[in-house]
Specification:
The chain is α/β, with parallel strands linked by helices and about 240 residues long. The protein contains 9 helices and 11 strands. The chain has one domain: Acetylglutamate kinase-like (Carbamate kinase), CATH 3.40.1160.
């Protein structure tokens, strides 16, 4: 039994590269596809936003002297590559999908139209949103929050490499403390690196909960969807 009717799954580009230093690890994407298929079989409608950091990071390129707008558009194109990879593995597992992009590229995907996205979800297709918001200066976290609000998702599930939100980086600090629950204001005031402040504020304004969980652990997505207390939940109260 699923706790949610419709979710927005946010995956970082880094989540797709597994142990590799760059690019896409086919085994990782295969596992994601199997997990998404499992929750579809529970009757959950699924939207997906994938980052592009495994291929190109606009912000770090900008820091090295590249024009920020050009760098951000390159990052958006990287998310399209990742979206197509996720689509391919989902369809190999007999899951019907559509890729909707914020930048028009009709030969590859459909342009994002809210009503069309809603219709695909109602028909049981997994909708993969690519190219961020279509605007520079906005992260894919903000794109995930925006798309989640637009499709009236019940929750954003943010897959990361760790099992929730900590007060410091658990990869570097053995004594890092994990939060079970947080409010939106906690995240903003403590400057916790969950999502950027624009994304968190958008969720707060629309009372949209966020659950941060470890997407590298196979089976965790299903557990989160079924309401198990895994990861960190961010909400209003």
């Amino acid at each position: 039994m699923a706790n949610y009717k419709r979710i927005l799954l946010k995956l970082s580009g880094e989540a797709l590269m597994g142990g590799q230093g760059l690019g896409i690890d086919p085994k990782v994407v295969e596992n994601i596809a199997i997990e998404v298929k499992e929750i579809r079989e529970l009757g959950v409608e699924v939207g997906v936003v994938v980052g592009g950091g495994n291929i190109f990071r606009g912000l770090s390129a900008s820091a090295r002297g590249m024009d920020r707008v050009s760098a951000d558009y390159m990052g958006m194109l990287a998310t399209v590559i990742n979206a197509m990879a996720v689509q391919d593995y989902l369809e190999r597992n007999n899951v019907y999908t559509r890729v909707l992009t914020a930048i028009k590229m009709e030969e590859l995907a459909e342009p994002f139209i809210r009503r069309r996205a809603m219709r695909h979800l109602e028909k049981g297709r997994v909708v993969i949103f690519a190219a961020g918001t279509g605007n520079p200066y906005f992260t894919t976290d903000t794109a995930a929050a925006l798309r989640a609000v637009e499709i009236e998702a019940d929750v954003i599930l943010k897959g990361t490499k760790v099992d929730g939100v900590y007060d410091s980086d658990p990869m570097e600090n053995d004594k890092a403390v994990k939060f079970e629950t947080l409010t939106y204001l906690d995240v903003i005031k403590k400057r916790l690196k969950v999502m950027d402040s624009t994304a968190v504020t958008l969720c707060m304004d629309n009372n949209l909960p966020i659950v941060v969980y470890n997407s590298t652990k196979f089976g965790y997505l299903r557990k989160v969807v079924q309401g198990e207390a895994i990861g960190t939940t961010i909400s209003g109260g």
